[in-house]
């Protein structure tokens, strides 16, 4: 059983301060920005729950949007099927930490 799953997180946040904070938090979770408002990477279930919780706390449902999608896009697919991702460097999870 794999503890990590690949996720795509996409968002549209109106407030600049909130958008910057959310962007930085996505990087803190180890997700990689592949576009200005799109992140890709591995999350375990606890991390995914934290990302969702953060989105519900920070984002205004009346103005902002966020999609969390489990996906199976491989790094090779980025390079073969998408334009502009030739230099995309994908980071695998480097292990497990006990907190």
Secondary structure elements and pairings:
Blueprint lengths: L3 E9 L3 H13 L3 E4 L2 E7 H14 L6 E6 L4 H7 L18
Antiparallel strand pairs: 1-3, 1-4, 2-3
Helix pairs in contact: 1-2
Largest sheet: 4 strands, antiparallel
Question: What is the overall pLDDT average?
Answer: 85
Overall geometry comes to globular
Assign the structural class, choosing from mainly alpha, mainly beta, alpha/beta, alpha+beta, or little secondary structure: alpha+beta
CATH topology-level name: Alpha-Beta Plaits
CATH architecture: 2-Layer Sandwich
How much strand? 25-35%
C-alpha termini separation: 20 Å
Share of helix among residues? Answer: 25-40%
Number of helices: 3
Kindly provide the name of the CATH class.
Alpha Beta
Task: Give the low-confidence spans.
Answer: none
Count of strand segments: 4
Q: What's the Cα radius of gyration? A: 14 Å
Tally of structural domains: 1
> Going across the major beta sheet, what is the strand order?
2-3-1-4
Organism: Ruminobacter amylophilus
Protein name: CRISPR-associated endoribonuclease Cas2
Binding site for Mg(2+): 12
EC number: 3.1.-.-
């Amino acid at each position: 059983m794999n503890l990590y799953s690949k996720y795509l997180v996409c968002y549209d946040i109106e407030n600049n301060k909130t958008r910057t904070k959310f962007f930085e938090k996505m990087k803190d979770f180890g997700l990689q920005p592949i576009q200005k408002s799109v992140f890709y990477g591995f999350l375990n279930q606890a991390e995914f729950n934290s990302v969702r919780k953060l989105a519900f706390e920070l984002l205004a449902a009346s103005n902002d949007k966020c999609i969390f999608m489990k996906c199976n896009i491989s790094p090779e697919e980025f390079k073969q099927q998408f334009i502009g991702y030739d230099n995309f460097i994908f980071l695998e999870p480097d292990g497990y930490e006990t907190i």
